[in-house]
Amino acid sequence: MSTVTKIFGSKVFDDRVMKAKLPAKIYNSLRRTIDEGVDLDIGVANAVASAMKDWAVENGATHYTHWFQPLTGITAEKHDSFISPSPDGGIIMEFSGKELIKGEPDASSFPSGGIRATFEARGYTAWDPTSYAFIKGKTLCIPTAFCSYGGEALDKKTPLLRSMEALNTQALRILRLFGNDAVKCVKTSVGPEQEYFLITKEMYDARPDIRFTGRTLFGAKPPKGQEMDDHYFGVIKPRVAEFMEDLNEELWKLGILAKTEHNEVAPAQHELAPIYTTTNIATDHNQLTMEIMQKVAIRHELVCLLHEKPFAGVNGSGKHNNWSISTDTGANLLSPGATPCENAQFLLFLCAVIKAVDDYQDLLRISVATAGNDHRLGANEAPPAVVSMFLGDELNAILEAIETDTPYVAADKTKMKLGVNVLPKFTRDTTDRNRTSPFAFTGNKFEFRMLGSSNSIACANIMLNAAVAESLKIYADRLEGTEDFETALHEMIKKTIKDHKRIIFNGNGYDDSWIKEATEQRGLLNYRTTADCMPHLLDKKNVEMLTAHKVFSNRELQSREEIMLENYCKTVIIEANTMTDMAKCSYAPAIERYASSIAQNAMFKKSLDATIPCAYEAGIVKRLSVLCDRIANTADELESAVIKLSDAESIDEEAYMIRDTVLVKMAELRAAVDEAETITSKDFWPFPSYADMLFSVR
Ligand SMILES: NC(=O)CC[C@H](N)C(=O)O
Fold first, then answer.
1. Are residues 9 and 58 in the same domain?
2. To test ligand 1's pocket by mutation, which of 194, 196, 381 has the most ligand atoms within 8 angstroms of CB?
3. 3-state secondary structure of 136
4. pLDDT digits (tens, 9 = 90+) for 79-129
5. How confident is the model at residue 413 (pLDDT cuts 50, 70, 90)?
6. What is the pLDDT of the chain when averaged over all its residues?
7. Of 139, 155, 171, at which residue does a domain stop?
8. Of all protein residues, whose CA lies closest to atom 5 belonging to ligand 1?
9. Quick one: CA torsion of 293, 295, 298, 302, rounded to 10 degrees?
10. How large is the average pLDDT for residues 623-636?
């Protein structure tokens, strides 16, 4: 066995271990819980817990934790050791079924958006057996859902599981209509491409803005950025290669299918992509991947930046969510099939996605909304904030032929009537990719490109699954019990294309003319910022859909809106405070020192000989003095804008004020400091430059 096959999954209590360690009866009953959602009885839980503990202890674990994903966007853990006193004064290592299936963390300090007051400390964590337990360090981590005392979800996993269930229910109804009775379960899978930057720890330590906010808040454009396209897929530097090697090993041990690694477009930018897996597991794995990337980087004296736009002017970091729907019998429902019948089914699922993306474009935008991602969307190969879909030429032609009842030329001029017997065979689309499209069909899956690199993929997939479940439900309601299935199917697909073709766009998403056409002619939404989109989470149609499929309750939705806006406001306020601090306490004094040293030089020169020219010195001193005044004044104005936020009467209003005043002043302050950087001696400049940081790893 190669080393990789040996270490892969070695820290995971996966199917192989369960099979080997559990009595057959227990194993089969656990499998039924994992595969079919059958309730687990305490006897089984006790047996699993005991085997899990023995395995974990054998592998060096001393503690266990319920590992969950609160609404902070990161994961949470509270370790308990397995020890229990024994009568002889020693200890035994113990872990019960009760401890496995339920935890009661005193977790009052997590954001709950009003679901739970601080004095109501209790929250519950409940084991999610569909995601395997694993060992991190010396701790056995048990993936769990997290909810309040009253049963409301306080995490991202619970609604994600609910959305998968909603899609499963509706997709099965559709499959039955096509005579498919063998499929027991439909699941979505995802392969998220994780982009990130690596800079040296030395650079990181020297930049308070990166340390406090994850991104640079100042920095003049370097002489060289990504103009030469020489970093993308370029030779990986040895130090980065060592980091990647180490990272792969850690991920493989945790059963994470790390597959592709390469240099990305911007200097210092890289990407890691795993093989796709069930959405729930992919979400857990992506959270772990982000955590481990940061840990491994430190071992190499590097820092891994997961911010969406750590450096202005070069590519930001996204997390493209490659999403598909498949059955337990191994069929990918987004893959054009081999027979006309399969293609009719494929077209129905395709239409369900088209309808979902159009009807719930706002929810998709909301699902990726963060202060950081607002800076990324709309430039440097990240899609714009207007949601649209790219299907490619062949699929477009097919949809057009269906809509207009005209022959589909590429397929023997067969008229596109969607009767299962007359639909022509067509193969996988091989058209080009579109980097500016938020939602691109890539042959047998959709690539949702709007997610930012720090986003949990849970949110985007919750909305996507729920919206598609809703389309499928509407279809199933219409088709079930119809006399003439083929005609009804054909009419329904035709209607979907007519009603929703506005969302399909194959051109350049960055063109101003597209944004104009999208918003003015097609009526698509353009929510530029988190402040613009977040309140729409509570729009009637969104609440109705999400509650109808039991993905969120009303209260859970309100809490999410509040938490996301609070997060936006806090993030920007921390950025603003960091900026005023850096401007007042570091930049302005440094600029003053440099200007005064130049002024003194000029005076020395003049005292030697009054005819020595000092135009250079005078010019610089003048420019820097003007800039320094501007920096000081703008920093004051920024500070006042932040103080004024306390006048806001609601979190929505505070977010609007941030968008309209604080972010505007931040941009002005940055412009003044960046201009000063271009004429100040490096010896006086207090922080590393863009060039220093972007080219720091050699
Ligand atoms: N080449 C690429 O796919 C770049 C994507 C880009 N970094 C983004 O923000 O999404």
1. yes
2. 381
3. strand
4. 999 999 999 999 999 999 999 998 887 666 777 777 765 456 678 889 999
5. very low
6. 92
7. 155
8. 381
9. 10
10. 98
pLDDT at 296: 98
Render pLDDT for 207-233 as a digit per residue (tens, 0 to 9).
999 999 999 999 999 988 888 778 888
Model pLDDT, residue 395: 85
| β-pair partners for 440 | 390, 447
User: Tens digit of pLDDT for each residue in 588-612?
Assistant: 999 999 999 999 999 999 999 999 9
Are 116 and 148 in contact by the 8 Å Cβ rule? The answer is yes
Query: Do residues 269 and 381 both lie within one domain?
Result: yes
Residue positions counted in the chain: 698
Cβ of 316 below 6 Å from ligand 1? yes
Q: Answer whether 315 contacts ligand 1 (Cβ < 6 A).
A: yes
Let me know whether 457 and 509 are in one domain: yes
Looking from the CA of residue 315, the nearest atom of ligand 1 is 7
Q: Which residue has the CA at smallest separation from atom 4 of ligand 1?
A: 381
Which structural domain range is residue 88 located in? Answer: 4-155
Q: How far apart are CA 156 and CA 143, in angstroms?
A: 12
Q: Is 447 in the pocket of ligand 1 (CB under 6 A)?
A: no
For residue 388, how many C-alpha atoms fall within 13 Å in the half-sphere facing its CB?
Answer: 30
**501 shares its domain with 575:** no
Ligand 1 atom having least distance to the Cα of 264: 1
Token match 């964590």: residue? 125
- Ligand 1 center–CA 212 separation, angstroms: 25
234 within a domain of the structure (yes/no): yes
Number of domains in the chain: 3
Q: Is the CB of 509 under 6 A from ligand 1?
A: no
The verdict on residue 561 lying in a domain is no
688 CB less than 6 Å from ligand 1?
no
Question: Which CATH number does the domain housing residue 678 bear?
Answer: 1.20.120.1560
Residues 78 and 107 in one domain: yes
**Whether 536 and 596 share a structural domain:** no
- Encode pLDDT of 566-588 as tens digits: 999 999 999 999 999 999 999 99
Residue 376 Cβ < 6 Å to ligand 1: yes
Complex ipTM value: 0.95
Beta strands per DSSP E along 367-428: 389-390, 407-408, 414-415
Torsion, Cα 518 521 525 526, to 10 degrees, reads: 50
pLDDT above 70 (res 363)? yes
Q: Does residue 563 sit within a domain?
A: no
pTM: 0.94
- If you take atom 7 of ligand 1, which residue's CA is the nearest one? 317
Centre a 10 Å sphere on the Cβ of residue 180 and count the other Cβ atoms it contains. Answer: 14
183 CA to middle of ligand 1, Å?
A: 36
Packing angle of the helix pair 485-500, 393-404 (nearest 10 deg): 110
Report the residue among 380, 442, 450, 455 best suited for mutation to probe ligand 1: largest number of ligand atoms under 8 A from its CB.
380
Question: What CATH number does the domain containing 413 carry?
Answer: 3.30.590.10
Q: What is the pLDDT of residues 505-537, one digit of tens each?
A: 988 888 889 999 999 999 999 999 999 999 999
Q: How far is the CA of 366 from the centre of ligand 1 (A)?
A: 20
Q: What is the mean pLDDT of residues 603-624?
A: 96
* 295 and 186 fall within a common domain: yes
Q: Is 321 in the pocket of ligand 1 (CB under 6 A)?
A: no
Please give the pLDDT value at position 432: 53
Half-sphere exposure of 518 (CA within 13 A, CB side): 26
Choosing from 521, 552, 583, the residue where a domain stops is 552
Q: How far is the CA of 430 from the centre of ligand 1 (A)?
A: 21
Let me know whether 281 and 384 are in one domain.
Answer: yes
